[in-house]
Each structure stands twice: as structure tokens, then as C-alpha cells.
Specification:
SH3 type barrels, 2 helices, 90 residues, two-stranded antiparallel ribbon, mainly beta, five-stranded antiparallel beta sheet
Length: 90
């Protein structure tokens, strides 16, 4: 739990589920965090863009992600210190 990933894309389906996922915020570049899983492992609660959403495994498998660690390096221009942060689109 608590692992973060960055969305790379959402796979197309013949039922249009990818559009629903994109409408609720599963967009490329978005950071998603696994918050918790149900006792039997399905569904899982994810946090993204300031809200929580629950997805079943079959829906979550449509989302292509990469590890969020070191995704974006930010330089603080006020004192010159470099820090590693993950950017979340509003």
C-alpha cells in the first residue's frame, strides 16, 4: 500500500471503459497512489487528483503505468537546493 505510479495511458476497449476512466482523472502524467485493498484483494482504492476511487482488477489492468520514484526532479530556486518531488496535475 502507498505505492505511487505515473499513468502512461489507458488501453482501449470495445465497451468504451477507457473514456470513463479518463473522465474521472486517469490521464497520462497523473500520479496515482494505492491507498488500500479489499480483504480478498479486489477492489482496490486509489488516490489521484485529490480524490479516491475504487476500481476492480479488470478495470485497473487497462491502465499502463510506470514507477513514480524519481519521476520529476524539482530545483528550489529560493535557496538552490535540489529536491525530488512528484508533480500532480490539478
Amino acid at each position: 500500500m502507498g505505492d505511487s505510479v505515473v499513468i502512461q495511458g489507458v488501453e482501449s476497449t470495445e465497451h468504451g471503459l477507457e473514456r470513463r476512466l479518463e473522465h474521472v482523472g486517469f490521464l497520462p502524467g497523473t500520479v496515482v497512489r494505492v491507498e488500500r485493498r479489499a480483504p480478498l484483494g479486489d477492489p482496490t482504492v486509489y488516490e489521484l487528483r485529490g480524490f479516491r476511487i475504487t476500481l476492480r482488477k479488470d478495470s485497473a489492468q487497462l491502465i499502463d503505468v510506470t514507477d513514480a520514484i524519481g519521476a520529476i526532479d524539482v530545483v528550489d530556486t529560493t535557496d538552490g537546493d535540489a529536491s525530488s518531488e512528484t508533480e500532480v496535475d490539478p
